[in-house]
Amino acid sequence: MHSMEQTRIILVEDDTDLRESLMEALAIHGYPVTGVGTGLAFYRELGRKEFDVAIIDLGLPDLDGHELVEFVRRNSAAGVIVVTARGEVAERVKGYVSGADLYLTKPVDVAELAAAIAGIAARRRASAPSGKIDGWRLTQDSWRLIAPDSSECQLSQREFRLLGALAAGGGLPVSRDLLYQQVYGGGDAVTSSSTLDSLVSRLRSRYRDLYGRQLPLQTVAGSGYRFVGLLSVI
């Protein structure tokens, strides 16, 4: 069994004072924590390393915390603890439906949070399959998208180029102009944007029809698109 020092924790909380306070208090309990203040920063950290427990605030400035909960549940074996000011029953139910292991309302008792981390991390490790859980992968030789659960989606050449460009973005938004250049080459702005949006829409619909879930390909208003999570080309 892993020691507390080996339990990898990520905390996303936009209140800087509260985030630092929780990090310090959990460190005293023996849990070093990676802390971030936005949903995008959270996704970046998930792309860099694996975590045993994710502590997620729902009221983030850039993304809905429920989206983060759902992503962690779909794409990793990490435990999820929601820590939020939203105490209504409907919010708690939504949190558990999204995939939270535990839903705590602020102000949270750090001793309870530390105990929850220990229990959830232990249960998750015991139930996780052996071996590393990979992120999403693109195969260069056969133009396939492989999900973390090993399901495969055959891509067209243009779909592969699109996802390859998003993979190179490392989870950050990639502009429509750059994506169009990577997929099609040159073109005027209006036609380029419309053609690219159609390609994305078809790929999303086909993936949803095949697997009954959303492809984590997110539209970024005023910018372009980004792939949420770790996407590598193999």
What would your notes on this structure say?
This protein is α/β, with parallel strands linked by helices. 45% of the residues lie in helices and 19% in strands. A hairpin with a 5-residue loop joins strand 7 (144-146) and strand 8 (152-154). It has two domains: 4-127, Response regulator (Rossmann fold, 3-Layer(aba) Sandwich); 136-233, Arc Repressor Mutant, subunit A (Orthogonal Bundle), CATH 1.10.10.10. Mean pLDDT is 83; it is low at 1-5. It has helices at residues 16-28, 39-48, 65-75, 89-98, 110-127, 157-168, 176-183, 189-211; strands at 9-12, 33-36, 53-56, 79-84, 102-105, 136-139, 144-146, 152-154, 174-175, 217-220, 224-227, 231-233. The protein contains eight helices and twelve strands. Helix 7 (176-183) crosses helix 8 (189-211). The strands form three sheets. The chain has a five-stranded parallel beta sheet with strand order 2-1-3-4-5, sandwiched between helices.
